[in-house]
Amino acid sequence: MVVSFTVDKSQCRGLKWVVKDPISVKLIGPILTRLPLTPFNPLTHPGLPRYRQVFVWLQQAILAAELKSGEQLPATRELAHQLNVSRNTVKSAFELLQAEGYIEARQGAGSFVIDLPAHLLRHAPVTHSDALAQSSLPGLNHRLDALQAFRIPETRAPQRLQPAVPALDAFPLQQWKRCLGQSVSRHQLQHTPLAGDGLLREELVMHLASRRGIQVDASQLLITSGSQQALHLVAELLLCPNDRVLVESPGYPGTAAVMRAAGAKVESISWQLLQQGLPTGLKAACLCVTPSRNFPLGHTLTLQARLALLNWAEQQDCWIIEDDFDCEFATGQPITALYALSREQRVIYTGTFSRTMFPALRLGYLVLPPALVPGMLKLRGYQDGGLTRLSQHALGKFMAEGYYSRHLKKMRQLYQQRREALITAIAASPLSELPVIDAGGGMHLVQALPSGRADQALCQRLNQEGIGARPLSAYDPLNQQQGLILGFSADTADQIDDAVSHLGLVYRQTLC
Q1: Among 11, 237, 409, 471, which is most exposed with the fewest C-beta within 10 angstroms?
Q2: Stretch 2-9: mean pLDDT, rounded?
Q3: Pair 96, 90: CB distance under 8 Å
Q4: CATH code of domain 9-116
Q5: Which keywords has UniProt assigned to this entry (predicted)?
Q6: Rounded-to-integer distance, Cα 479 and Cα 134, Å
Q7: How much is the pTM?
């Protein structure tokens, strides 16, 4: 239902209220505090928590310039009364708006819309929009008959302090067995739909709306065997030989490898340049980024940088592949995905369950603009015909029963404890003299090394001795920063202490 309210003019103290409809109210006075022109309607996003509904309402109003730069928002108590919600709901929405860079709080004055360049504000979030017609995608299927193989390297045996490995010792195995058992039926012996199991896709729709602000239909989701296959499918569908592809640095080397396997010319682009804004003359067919949480440094692109990327992609007719790495375990509320901000549907979103569930599950997903769905299903049918259905349906049940959300909450708390254990162990070791690059949360941190120290040689020795540290320079082809990427999520506090002690001993020996 649409919320309505009344206004007591006797309490306005000289300020003039103008009522245009039951919810669009403007207060005209010395300081402009008004509501968006678009009424607040909870039914617009019924599946979202109420604070998220308020957040999306104000977010879209800011991006659509219904609320201008510098304008003051109503006080939380006043807005809560007008929307018929609790004050805590409005405060949570304001906190999320401030965290994502839409508003700023001024002590003693209130909350104000930040100053965003006007040319970026056309990229308001959208829900169901087919902004790209099939006719605007020339040569979309030009590579369907010329697929190139890409072999993913074998995974190493588990080691201490290895990044990107979840806490398998804390995985709810009994609940997972129950969901597997409930999924075994003759129906599940049939062919899997090309897009993936229907229950899993429906559950993903609700999860992405709640956690990442992505409002899509289940038909726009494609279940993959992981983020690596997702990248391969996108590259095969969209790229021509010798197309220019930009990949952020630092970044995951597997992304560049997939693009090269598809025949593209890959160029690294610094994370700092992405933060500042890409030059208007820079052209590319595709840009691969982790805007919400960079791997491995954990940085987040500012709101203005994210909007600028969308503006640049539209001008250059470029696709953006958004890898949502590690966002489930970042501190604070997750920010809105770049996909949700793209009006022109230039973004393709990828995610994986390898880190939130367990690596052997081998399930991930793509969120596609509607215009790409037919071609992607055709490619899937040609390439592998779909994935095993049983594990997909079991994961759908795992989410539907609430096990997944509870598991994520438990892991966030556990990983914070293990992260603190790693920081404490480092502080008591010879590594304490080195700076720690820690963006908060996640599953790993980075220990910087002095200039001239070869991180790859050090990591090779550590790996031989059972410590899975990874060299930062291997992820940074542009600057070749030297450092150690240290995971903490898979190890107990005692295991972390032992591993750091051994790491410190090896590090000290290499100095001699």
Answers
A1: 11
A2: 44
A3: no
A4: 1.10.10.10
A5: Aminotransferase, DNA-binding, Pyridoxal phosphate, Transcription, Transcription regulation, Transferase
A6: 40
A7: 0.82
What residue spans define the domains of the chain? 9-116, 160-169+225-384+409-512
pLDDT (0 to 100) of residue 132: 59
Reduce the DSSP state of residue 364 to 3 states and report it.
strand
Q: Any idea which of 10-24, 26-40, 293-307 has the lowest mean pLDDT?
A: 10-24
Give the model confidence (pLDDT) of 176-200 as tens digits: 999 999 999 888 777 789 999 999 9
Tokens linked to 252 = 């995951």
- Residue 435 confidence class, pLDDT cut points 50, 70, 90: very high
Q: 254: closest CA among 141, 357, 372, 364?
A: 364
Both structure tokens of 114: 């930040």
Contact 117, 64 (CB under 8 A): no
DSSP string, 12-56: STTPEEEESSSS-EEEESSS-EE--SSPP-GGGSTTS-HHHHHHH
CATH of 160-169+225-384+409-512, picked from 3.40.50.150, 2.40.280.10, 2.60.40.10, 3.40.640.10, is 3.40.640.10
Residues 173, 168: Cα–Cα separation, whole Å: 9
Q: How far is CA 10 from CA 5, 29, 75, 333, 495, in A?
A: 16, 15, 19, 40, 67
Residue 480 · residue 461 · CB < 8 Å = no
Contacts of 245 (CB under 8 A, 6+ apart): 239, 259, 264, 265, 266, 267, 284, 285, 286, 287, 288
pLDDT tens profile 460-469: 999 999 999 9
